[in-house]
Amino acid sequence: MPQALVGKEISMSALNTVLSFARQQAPQYQLQDRVQRQPGPVDLAIQRVGKTFQLAGENLNVLSDINLDIRSGEFISIVGASGCGKSTLLKLVAGLDTQYEGDIVYQGKRIEGTDLGRGIVFQEHRLFPWLTVEANIELAFSATNVSKPERRKRVQAQIDLVGLSGFEKAYPHQISGGMSQRVAIARALILRPQLLLLDEPFAALDALTRLKLQQELQRLWEHQGLTTILVTHDVEEAVFLGDQVVVMQSHPGRIKRIVPVSLPRPRIRTAPAFHAIRDDVLTDFV
Ligand SMILES: Nc1ncnc2c1ncn2[C@@H]1O[C@H](COP(=O)(O)OP(=O)(O)OP(=O)(O)O)[C@@H](O)[C@H]1O
Protein backbone atom coordinates (compact mmCIF):
# COMPACT_ATOMS: atom_id res chain seq x y z
CA MET A 1 0.00 0.00 0.00
CA PRO A 2 1.37 3.48 -0.81
CA GLN A 3 2.65 5.28 2.29
CA ALA A 4 0.32 8.15 1.47
CA LEU A 5 -2.69 5.96 2.27
CA VAL A 6 -1.53 4.73 5.63
CA GLY A 7 -3.43 7.54 7.41
CA LYS A 8 -6.72 6.28 5.90
CA GLU A 9 -6.63 3.26 8.21
CA ILE A 10 -7.41 5.43 11.26
CA SER A 11 -11.08 5.20 12.32
CA MET A 12 -13.08 8.41 12.81
CA SER A 13 -13.38 7.89 16.58
CA ALA A 14 -9.63 7.33 16.93
CA LEU A 15 -9.01 10.40 14.79
CA ASN A 16 -11.33 12.52 16.94
CA THR A 17 -9.55 11.36 20.12
CA VAL A 18 -6.21 12.27 18.57
CA LEU A 19 -7.54 15.65 17.45
CA SER A 20 -9.03 16.62 20.79
CA PHE A 21 -5.75 15.71 22.50
CA ALA A 22 -3.79 17.74 19.96
CA ARG A 23 -6.11 20.72 20.44
CA GLN A 24 -5.57 20.67 24.20
CA GLN A 25 -1.81 20.46 23.73
CA ALA A 26 -1.48 22.97 20.94
CA PRO A 27 -0.60 26.60 21.52
CA GLN A 28 -3.83 28.58 21.32
CA TYR A 29 -4.02 30.63 18.17
CA GLN A 30 -5.37 34.14 18.44
CA LEU A 31 -7.07 34.42 15.10
CA GLN A 32 -7.87 38.11 15.55
CA ASP A 33 -4.19 38.87 16.27
CA ARG A 34 -2.82 37.11 13.25
CA VAL A 35 -1.33 39.15 10.48
CA GLN A 36 -2.92 38.56 7.11
CA ARG A 37 -0.14 37.09 5.02
CA GLN A 38 0.38 38.45 1.55
CA PRO A 39 2.28 36.40 -1.02
CA GLY A 40 5.71 37.97 -1.51
CA PRO A 41 7.87 38.09 -4.63
CA VAL A 42 9.35 34.87 -6.05
CA ASP A 43 12.06 33.80 -3.60
CA LEU A 44 13.09 30.51 -5.13
CA ALA A 45 12.86 29.65 -8.81
CA ILE A 46 13.39 26.04 -9.86
CA GLN A 47 13.82 26.10 -13.62
CA ARG A 48 14.03 23.08 -15.95
CA VAL A 49 15.84 21.09 -13.27
CA GLY A 50 17.03 17.59 -14.05
CA LYS A 51 19.21 15.17 -12.12
CA THR A 52 20.87 11.95 -13.27
CA PHE A 53 22.76 9.55 -11.00
CA GLN A 54 25.27 6.95 -12.14
CA LEU A 55 24.25 3.59 -10.73
CA ALA A 56 26.23 0.42 -11.55
CA GLY A 57 27.45 1.99 -14.78
CA GLU A 58 23.95 3.02 -15.84
CA ASN A 59 22.43 6.48 -15.98
CA LEU A 60 19.49 6.85 -13.63
CA ASN A 61 17.37 9.85 -14.58
CA VAL A 62 15.82 10.78 -11.24
CA LEU A 63 14.46 14.27 -11.90
CA SER A 64 13.27 15.71 -15.18
CA ASP A 65 12.10 19.19 -16.15
CA ILE A 66 11.13 20.40 -12.68
CA ASN A 67 9.74 23.93 -12.78
CA LEU A 68 8.46 25.62 -9.64
CA ASP A 69 8.27 29.20 -8.39
CA ILE A 70 8.08 29.64 -4.63
CA ARG A 71 7.14 33.01 -3.19
CA SER A 72 8.63 34.58 -0.11
CA GLY A 73 6.85 33.34 3.02
CA GLU A 74 5.06 30.55 1.19
CA PHE A 75 4.71 27.05 2.59
CA ILE A 76 5.10 24.37 -0.07
CA SER A 77 4.40 20.69 0.59
CA ILE A 78 5.82 18.07 -1.75
CA VAL A 79 4.23 14.61 -1.88
CA GLY A 80 4.84 11.65 -4.14
CA ALA A 81 5.50 7.93 -4.20
CA SER A 82 8.66 6.56 -2.69
CA GLY A 83 11.64 7.04 -5.00
CA CYS A 84 10.11 9.82 -7.13
CA GLY A 85 12.97 12.17 -6.23
CA LYS A 86 11.54 14.37 -3.45
CA SER A 87 14.62 14.16 -1.22
CA THR A 88 16.91 14.57 -4.21
CA LEU A 89 15.13 17.81 -5.13
CA LEU A 90 15.34 19.09 -1.55
CA LYS A 91 19.08 18.32 -1.42
CA LEU A 92 19.59 20.32 -4.61
CA VAL A 93 17.74 23.29 -3.08
CA ALA A 94 19.80 22.91 0.11
CA GLY A 95 22.97 23.01 -2.00
CA LEU A 96 24.11 19.61 -0.68
CA ASP A 97 24.36 18.40 -4.28
CA THR A 98 25.38 20.90 -6.94
CA GLN A 99 25.53 18.55 -9.93
CA TYR A 100 22.26 19.16 -11.72
CA GLU A 101 20.84 20.42 -14.97
CA GLY A 102 18.83 23.63 -15.19
CA ASP A 103 18.85 26.38 -12.58
CA ILE A 104 17.80 26.73 -8.98
CA VAL A 105 17.85 30.43 -8.21
CA TYR A 106 17.41 31.62 -4.65
CA GLN A 107 17.00 35.35 -4.06
CA GLY A 108 18.49 36.06 -7.47
CA LYS A 109 21.53 33.77 -7.18
CA ARG A 110 22.02 30.26 -8.58
CA ILE A 111 22.47 27.76 -5.77
CA GLU A 112 26.06 26.50 -5.87
CA GLY A 113 26.46 25.12 -2.34
CA THR A 114 25.11 25.20 1.19
CA ASP A 115 24.36 28.50 2.89
CA LEU A 116 23.53 29.45 6.48
CA GLY A 117 20.43 31.23 5.14
CA ARG A 118 18.90 27.85 4.30
CA GLY A 119 18.13 25.56 7.22
CA ILE A 120 17.42 21.87 6.77
CA VAL A 121 15.82 19.23 9.01
CA PHE A 122 15.95 15.53 8.17
CA GLN A 123 13.79 12.59 9.18
CA GLU A 124 16.42 11.48 11.72
CA HIS A 125 17.26 14.30 14.11
CA ARG A 126 21.04 13.91 13.67
CA LEU A 127 21.82 15.20 17.17
CA PHE A 128 25.18 14.47 18.75
CA PRO A 129 24.50 12.02 21.62
CA TRP A 130 27.39 13.34 23.73
CA LEU A 131 26.11 16.94 23.66
CA THR A 132 23.24 18.41 25.67
CA VAL A 133 20.16 19.93 24.05
CA GLU A 134 21.57 23.45 24.34
CA ALA A 135 25.03 22.41 23.09
CA ASN A 136 23.50 20.63 20.08
CA ILE A 137 21.62 23.81 19.16
CA GLU A 138 24.59 26.08 19.85
CA LEU A 139 26.69 23.99 17.49
CA ALA A 140 24.94 25.72 14.59
CA PHE A 141 26.97 28.84 15.42
CA SER A 142 30.33 27.11 14.93
CA ALA A 143 30.95 28.64 11.49
CA THR A 144 29.86 32.12 12.60
CA ASN A 145 31.46 34.94 14.59
CA VAL A 146 28.43 35.42 16.87
CA SER A 147 29.69 36.18 20.39
CA LYS A 148 29.32 33.67 23.23
CA PRO A 149 26.79 35.76 25.22
CA GLU A 150 24.71 36.37 22.10
CA ARG A 151 24.79 32.63 21.27
CA ARG A 152 23.59 31.78 24.78
CA LYS A 153 20.78 34.32 24.55
CA ARG A 154 19.59 33.08 21.18
CA VAL A 155 19.84 29.41 22.15
CA GLN A 156 17.65 30.04 25.19
CA ALA A 157 15.12 32.01 23.15
CA GLN A 158 14.97 29.24 20.54
CA ILE A 159 14.58 26.56 23.23
CA ASP A 160 11.67 28.53 24.68
CA LEU A 161 10.13 28.95 21.22
CA VAL A 162 10.10 25.21 20.49
CA GLY A 163 8.77 24.41 23.96
CA LEU A 164 11.84 22.74 25.45
CA SER A 165 12.44 25.00 28.45
CA GLY A 166 13.73 22.93 31.36
CA PHE A 167 15.47 20.42 29.07
CA GLU A 168 18.52 22.55 28.24
CA LYS A 169 20.92 20.21 30.05
CA ALA A 170 19.30 16.95 28.88
CA TYR A 171 21.13 14.60 26.51
CA PRO A 172 19.40 13.19 23.41
CA HIS A 173 18.87 9.78 25.05
CA GLN A 174 16.99 11.50 27.90
CA ILE A 175 14.32 13.09 25.67
CA SER A 176 11.61 11.66 23.39
CA GLY A 177 11.71 11.38 19.59
CA GLY A 178 9.36 14.36 19.26
CA MET A 179 11.53 16.47 21.57
CA SER A 180 14.63 15.48 19.60
CA GLN A 181 12.95 16.65 16.41
CA ARG A 182 12.13 19.96 18.12
CA VAL A 183 15.83 20.30 18.98
CA ALA A 184 16.67 19.64 15.31
CA ILE A 185 14.14 22.30 14.25
CA ALA A 186 15.56 24.75 16.82
CA ARG A 187 19.06 24.09 15.49
CA ALA A 188 17.87 24.73 11.93
CA LEU A 189 16.14 27.98 12.96
CA ILE A 190 18.77 29.43 15.30
CA LEU A 191 20.71 31.10 12.49
CA ARG A 192 17.46 32.76 11.38
CA PRO A 193 17.32 31.22 7.92
CA GLN A 194 14.85 32.65 5.47
CA LEU A 195 14.31 29.29 3.81
CA LEU A 196 13.50 26.18 5.83
CA LEU A 197 13.76 22.76 4.17
CA LEU A 198 12.13 19.81 5.89
CA ASP A 199 12.64 16.24 4.69
CA GLU A 200 9.94 14.11 6.35
CA PRO A 201 10.76 15.59 9.76
CA PHE A 202 7.88 13.85 11.56
CA ALA A 203 7.87 10.52 9.73
CA ALA A 204 9.33 8.54 12.62
CA LEU A 205 6.99 9.97 15.26
CA ASP A 206 3.75 8.61 16.70
CA ALA A 207 0.43 10.08 15.49
CA LEU A 208 -0.19 12.34 18.51
CA THR A 209 3.30 13.83 18.55
CA ARG A 210 3.09 14.32 14.84
CA LEU A 211 -0.13 16.35 15.05
CA LYS A 212 1.30 18.48 17.82
CA LEU A 213 4.53 19.18 15.95
CA GLN A 214 2.63 20.04 12.77
CA GLN A 215 0.81 22.73 14.75
CA GLU A 216 4.05 23.93 16.30
CA LEU A 217 5.71 24.06 12.90
CA GLN A 218 2.85 26.20 11.60
CA ARG A 219 3.24 28.53 14.57
CA LEU A 220 7.02 28.88 13.98
CA TRP A 221 6.52 29.41 10.26
CA GLU A 222 3.98 32.17 10.89
CA HIS A 223 6.05 33.72 13.68
CA GLN A 224 9.25 33.85 11.63
CA GLY A 225 7.78 34.50 8.18
CA LEU A 226 9.82 31.63 6.72
CA THR A 227 9.64 30.34 3.19
CA THR A 228 9.26 26.61 3.80
CA ILE A 229 9.44 23.43 1.73
CA LEU A 230 8.21 20.25 3.38
CA VAL A 231 8.71 16.82 1.84
CA THR A 232 6.24 14.33 3.28
CA HIS A 233 4.51 11.02 2.59
CA ASP A 234 1.52 12.16 4.59
CA VAL A 235 -1.10 13.81 2.38
CA GLU A 236 -3.05 15.13 5.37
CA GLU A 237 0.10 16.78 6.75
CA ALA A 238 0.77 18.28 3.30
CA VAL A 239 -2.73 19.80 3.10
CA PHE A 240 -2.73 20.93 6.75
CA LEU A 241 0.46 22.94 6.28
CA GLY A 242 0.86 23.80 2.61
CA ASP A 243 -0.21 26.86 0.67
CA GLN A 244 0.36 24.58 -2.28
CA VAL A 245 0.75 20.83 -2.50
CA VAL A 246 3.14 19.75 -5.23
CA VAL A 247 2.35 16.21 -6.36
CA MET A 248 5.29 14.39 -7.94
CA GLN A 249 5.33 11.23 -10.01
CA SER A 250 8.13 8.78 -10.78
CA HIS A 251 10.33 7.51 -13.62
CA PRO A 252 11.63 10.08 -14.04
CA GLY A 253 10.62 12.21 -11.05
CA ARG A 254 8.55 15.14 -12.25
CA ILE A 255 5.73 17.38 -11.14
CA LYS A 256 2.35 15.85 -11.92
CA ARG A 257 0.28 18.78 -10.66
CA ILE A 258 0.16 21.56 -8.07
CA VAL A 259 -2.88 21.76 -5.81
CA PRO A 260 -3.47 25.17 -4.17
CA VAL A 261 -4.82 25.09 -0.60
CA SER A 262 -6.56 28.36 0.16
CA LEU A 263 -8.28 27.27 3.39
CA PRO A 264 -7.86 29.67 6.33
CA ARG A 265 -5.41 28.68 9.08
CA PRO A 266 -5.30 26.89 11.38
CA ARG A 267 -7.02 24.32 9.22
CA ILE A 268 -9.72 22.08 10.59
CA ARG A 269 -8.88 18.52 9.64
CA THR A 270 -12.45 17.34 10.11
CA ALA A 271 -13.96 20.06 7.88
CA PRO A 272 -15.56 18.93 4.59
CA ALA A 273 -13.48 21.46 2.63
CA PHE A 274 -10.29 20.00 4.11
CA HIS A 275 -11.43 16.45 3.28
CA ALA A 276 -12.25 17.47 -0.27
CA ILE A 277 -8.71 18.73 -0.92
CA ARG A 278 -7.06 15.79 0.86
CA ASP A 279 -9.18 13.29 -1.08
CA ASP A 280 -8.46 15.08 -4.33
CA VAL A 281 -4.70 14.78 -3.72
CA LEU A 282 -5.11 11.14 -2.67
CA THR A 283 -6.63 10.30 -6.05
CA ASP A 284 -3.10 10.62 -7.43
CA PHE A 285 -2.02 7.65 -5.34
CA VAL A 286 -4.77 5.10 -5.96
N1 LIG B 1 23.42 9.11 -4.40
C1 LIG B 1 22.62 8.38 -5.18
N2 LIG B 1 23.15 7.56 -6.12
C2 LIG B 1 22.35 6.85 -6.94
N3 LIG B 1 21.01 6.87 -6.89
C3 LIG B 1 20.44 7.66 -5.98
C4 LIG B 1 21.21 8.44 -5.07
N4 LIG B 1 20.36 9.13 -4.27
C5 LIG B 1 19.11 8.79 -4.65
N5 LIG B 1 19.16 7.90 -5.67
C6 LIG B 1 18.02 7.33 -6.37
O1 LIG B 1 17.19 8.40 -6.78
C7 LIG B 1 15.83 8.02 -6.70
C8 LIG B 1 15.08 9.06 -5.92
O2 LIG B 1 15.52 9.02 -4.56
P1 LIG B 1 14.92 10.02 -3.47
O3 LIG B 1 15.52 9.65 -2.17
O4 LIG B 1 15.09 11.40 -3.94
O5 LIG B 1 13.39 9.65 -3.54
P2 LIG B 1 12.21 10.06 -2.55
O6 LIG B 1 11.06 10.46 -3.40
O7 LIG B 1 12.70 11.06 -1.57
O8 LIG B 1 11.94 8.67 -1.86
P3 LIG B 1 11.37 8.35 -0.39
O9 LIG B 1 10.00 8.93 -0.37
O10 LIG B 1 11.37 6.87 -0.34
O11 LIG B 1 12.30 8.98 0.60
C9 LIG B 1 15.80 6.63 -6.12
O12 LIG B 1 15.65 5.70 -7.16
C10 LIG B 1 17.15 6.47 -5.49
O13 LIG B 1 17.57 5.15 -5.50
Radius of gyration: 19 Å
- Beginning-to-end CA distance, first to last residue: 9 Å
Query: What integer is the average pLDDT?
Result: 86
Quantity of strands, as a count: 10
What overall geometry do the principal axes of the alpha carbons give? Answer: globular
N to C succession of SSEs: HEEEHEEEHHHEHEHEEH
For the biggest sheet, the summary is: 6 strands, mixed
Give the low-pLDDT segments.
Answer: 1-10, 18-36
How much β-strand is present in the residues?
A: 15-25%
For this structure, the quaternary state is single chain
The side-by-side strand order for the widest beta sheet comes to: 6-7-8-3-9-10
| Structure class | alpha/beta
The helix tally amounts to: 8
Bound molecules: adenosine-5'-triphosphate
Helix content: 25-40%
Keywords: ATP-binding, Cell membrane, Membrane, Nucleotide-binding, Transport
GO molecular function: ATP binding; ATP hydrolysis activity
InterPro entries: AAA+_ATPase (IPR003593), ABC_transporter-like_ATP-bd (IPR003439), ABC_transporter-like_CS (IPR017871), ABC_transporter_ATP-bind (IPR050166), P-loop_NTPase (IPR027417)
Pfam family, one: ABC_tran
Question: Would you kindly provide a written description of the structure presented here, covering whatever features stand out?
Answer:
The protein has 286 residues and is α/β, with parallel strands linked by helices. It has a domain at 125-192. 32% of the residues lie in helices and 24% in strands. The protein contains eight helices and ten strands. The strands form two sheets. It has a six-stranded mixed sheet, sandwiched between helices. The protein has a four-stranded antiparallel sheet with strand order 2-1-4-5, with helices on one face. A hairpin with a 4-residue loop joins strand 9 (244-249) and strand 10 (254-260). Helix 1 (12-25) crosses helix 6 (207-224). The longest helix is centred in the C-terminal third of the chain and has 18 residues, at 207-224. It starts with 11 loop residues before the first helix and ends with a helix. Residues 53, 55, 60, 62, 80, 82-88 line the site of adenosine-5'-triphosphate.
